[in-house]
Specification:
Elements: H1 3-21, E1 23-24, E2 50-52, E3 56-59, E4 71-74, E5 85-91, E6 99-108, E7 116-122, E8 131-136, E9 145-153, E10 159-166, E11 177-186
The structure holds calcium ion.
Length: about 190
């Protein structure tokens, strides 16, 4: 094949990859480096993110991180109850009828026996689930950063993205899960 033909093939492949990848929608503080408290850089709440439940904290001293110095750490071994914990962010600048993919990197520590991680899409400010993807902990390889994602389509303008962890049904519970580098893409 002539070199110009190879170039055409390469351009088409790159264009296809770009179309598949989608267009980034900026998240606030996707790597969790920014504290929610201006006077406390080590605050356990990340700027731009809401949260609920037990022991899901921004951590400034855990390792490994995937990027930067901070992550979200889920302290499964310290969870006293069986209800879920999670974080979420609302985005105004996503149009109605938009195909989106939300992803984050998760690192499951060895011997973590939580039930599952759910990534969910809801309307902005919450409401009926638009899409949900559940990852059973036992199906995730331990001790490595891996990308997990959920895809869906908005109905109204705006979007809420959520990361939800369900602990083991009954204690004692072991292990921890780290999260870093969230991303939102739209088509
Ligand atoms: Ca980070």
């Amino acid at each position: 094949m002539k070199s110009s033909a190879w170039l055409v093939v390469l351009i088409l492949a790159v264009a296809q990859a770009a179309a598949f990848a989608g267009e980034p929608v900026p998240l606030v503080n996707p790597s969790f480096e920014e504290s929610a408290k201006a006077d406390d850089p080590k605050a356990d709440l990340a700027a731009g993110w809401g949260r609920w439940g037990h022991w899901i904290n921004r951590e400034t001293g855990w390792s490994p991180t995937r990027s930067g110095d901070c992550i979200i750490g889920y302290h499964h071994w310290e969870i006293p109850e069986k209800d879920s914990s999670g974080i979420y962010q609302d985005l105004a600048d996503v149009p109605a009828g938009c195909d989106v993919t939300f992803s984050v990197y998760a690192y499951v520590d060895e011997k973590t026996d939580a039930e599952h991680i759910e990534l969910r899409l809801e309307p902005k400010d919450g409401g009926k689930t638009l899409a949900s993807q559940r990852y059973e902990l036992r199906t995730l390889a331990p001790a490595m950063w891996q990308n997990i994602e959920v895809s869906g389509t908005t109905v109204e303008p705006g979007l809420r993205v959520l990361i939800i962890i369900t602990p083991r049904e009954a204690g004692p519970r072991t292990g921890a899960i780290k999260f870093d580098d969230a991303e939102l893409l739209k088509k």
